[in-house]
Structure formats: C-alpha cells, structure tokens
Hints:
The protein has helices spanning 13-18, 42-54, 72-86, 94-110, 116-133, 155-166, 267-270, 275-279, 316-319, 449-456; strands at 2-5, 22-24, 27-30, 32-36, 59-64, 144-149, 170-175, 191-194, 219-223, 232-234, 237-238, 285-291, 297-307, 311-314, 324-328, 335-338, 341-345, 350-354, 363-364, 376-381, 389-401, 404-409, 421-423, 428-437, 444-448. The chain is of the alpha+beta class.
Amino acid sequence: MEIRFNPMKITGIEAFGDVRGRTAAGVRSVYFILGTGYYPKLSEDIQSLDRRLSADERCVYRRVTSFPMPGVKEAAEYGDKWDRLCKGEKVLPAETETALKEVCALYRCARKDMNDSIEKNLAAMLMFRADRLLEGLCSSGGKCPKLVCSGKAGGKEYLFCLMAALMGIDVLLLVPSGEPSLPCGMERSEELIRLGENREFTLPEFQPASAVYAGSGSVAIASKVGAKAPKAAVPAVSGKHIPLTVPASPVRTPASEPAPSPVRESPSQSGEMSFEELATLASSVVMITLHNSRGRTIGSGSGIIIGSGGYILTNFHVAGGAKSFSVQLENDENIYRTNQIIKYHPNLDLAILRIDRQLTPMRFYNGREELRRGQKVVAIGSPLGLFNSVSDGIISGFREINGVDMIQFTAPISGGSSGGALLNMHGEVIGISTAGFSKGQNLNLAVGYKDIIPFIGNIY
C-alpha cells in the first residue's frame, strides 16, 4: 500500500484528534505532525486528547512517554534480523519492512559519515521500538491508528515516528524543548506546528479513561429505579489505580477451609451461601500489579478469572495505562508476568488479559430475574494492594452514566479494587467493581453482567 502524507494544516493537539487518516484506491493518507514548544494548557490538552481518543471506538490510540533502548542481547538479535532482511528474507510484515528501509535510506543519504555498522544499529533500534510500542496499531481492523509520542525526543525518536507514519499510523510528536536535531539536508516529511516558546517540560503519563473515571469536574447520572430522576451534577468519580503502599503477598487458605471446586454448584443446588463460603471464591479473583515500559510498578488493580485458558477480566482503566502486568493468585507462590491484552472496550471500561496458566473461572449470573435495590452483595478485590479483601453491602441503586448501565453498591472498595468481583449471595458475578465517588461514603459503581457477558463472548 502506498503512503501519502496529508498536507492539511493542523493547528494544535485538539485538531490532531479530529482528523482521520484514510485509505482509498490503495493509497493511505496519514498525518505526521511535529509540535514544538510549551504553553500553559499543554498538559490539560494532552490529557483531554487521551480521554477522547481512548474512548473513541473508531480509533486505536496509544501515547508513548518514553522510548525504550535495546540491551546488548536485543541489539544483537535485531541486528541479525536486519542482516537477514538485507539478504532478502521475509522477517517483517510488508508495511514495516518498507517503512524501515525508507527511513534508513533517508538517513544514509543525509549523513556523510554513514556506514553499514551505523545503519545496522539504527535499524535494530527501530525494529526493537516498533515491536515494543506499535504492536496492534497496524492491525487495527479498519480503525484509525493514532500515536502520540512525547518525552525526551531527539533525532532517533523523530526517525521512529517517521517510520510509524510510513507504516500508515497518524503520528503526533510533541517536543516542548524544540525541534529534534537531524542530519543537515535530510528530507523532512512532517507538518510543523509551533505550540509556544521552547522550554524543557515533562508531559504527564498516559491515563486512559472512559468518560466517567478520569475526567475532571462533574458527570450527570439518572436513577433507573422507578421514574427517571432529573439529571443532576454529582462529584467526579475516581477510578485511578493507587500504587502499592504495603507489601502484597498471596493469601493463605487455612488447612481446614475446603478448596474451591473447579465446577461451581448452581444456585438451585446450593441456595444462598454464607459469607465464609463466598470468601472462598477469592481463589478466582487476582491482584494485578501494573508496570511501565521500564518495568517499574505504577499501580495495582484486580481481575476476575473468566476462562480456564488463563483469561482474566479487568477494567480498561487498569490495563490501558501499563506496558506489562504481574498477576498474583491465591495459594500460588508464583507471579505470572504478561503483556497480553486480548481485547478491550474503553466505553464499557472492560479489558481481558491472559496469563500462561490453567485457571478456575468464576460463575456469572444468568439474569434469571432482575437485580433488586437492597439485595445483598459481596465485593472481592485488592484495595490499596491488600490482596483479595472481602467486603459486604447491598445494591443501593442503578445508574446510567454516559450511556453505561451501572450498579451502585455499598460494599467498601478503594483504589486497587478496580476490576474485582461483585457477587450475589449465590456466588455469581453480577458486576465488576469499577469506580467510587471521590466524595461520600460507600458510593461505589460496577459495570453489570448484562454488558460483561456479551463482551466476554465465547471466552467464558
């Protein structure tokens, strides 16, 4: 497919969010924008873009705030891949190979001291970064891929962004300190926009959000019980992960406590369960530790086991802001690392991860009758990193927030509970703990089973 840079003038960050690269007659029209300088609302505008595009089902969006460098082993592996590529072997997808060779050719023509070793090192670094940062953007299923890069950006980072654009991705490179240095005379392809005066400035980390959880100000809610209440402003909802503040270790099940059965009994057989019995179901709820691109812990969340093949349901606002995950299970000394996000839905705030282990899934409510206000519930999650805490409460209401049906409940949860299970007294999942009001006590929300079950599909 031929790539063409769209000459349309882009005036700022918001405008980049509005435009969409398109494909017609075998030609992909993309936007490659370099924004330089700083202005007072820069952080606010980029976070607004994060929220908007991560919730836009027409896009696959990613923002990169640091550029990883290959270690000695990775540099050798990707260098060998470049050698094989130069010999005519097909080791890369066609669009990646074409973009990589074009960037290397432009650099070779512009740099007077260029040699095979320098070119090989450049190619190895670009391939390494493409694998780490661009996965899933090119195979976006007809959606528009959009990439925003910031952080410390020089000539090599510019070349990486150019390569991404040549792969068919709309790219915005933000460099508050000014234009990155490139070899004199190198052909430029970007549309340059000057956002303000050049100065050193670090943009905030990427915080994906559905409209309710990471916004500022207020949101509107309406009661779904009886007649609809008029919409009224309520405090903003906090759904942020909170970094671990205490050591987290798997909970030990007492020897006298029966091990959970791989096959859950149906309600008709078992009736309502005691709180002690419900607590044993924590073996199918996990704690998820989040890591950035450098492997550092940036927060924690919870997840529900939904498939025996290692599938775990959590919130998109938990999974979307991390590069990799560590998963802990009860009665298991191992920590399972993964970077596999199988699917996600920003509007519903749902995502599915996968680890390499056989698991016992939880049982979901089948909707045999409508949930009721006042109905008893139990929440299981890892608030503040306190692994698999169990709390009880009632359903206190049903809300529609930004088009999503939510269960309001009183069982206490805190940051880190996001992605945990909300159970009825039969031990069935009726929702996934998602958020709580930042002001008020035990005003918590869960995405309900009616949205979860279609999202899970045949995994469950």
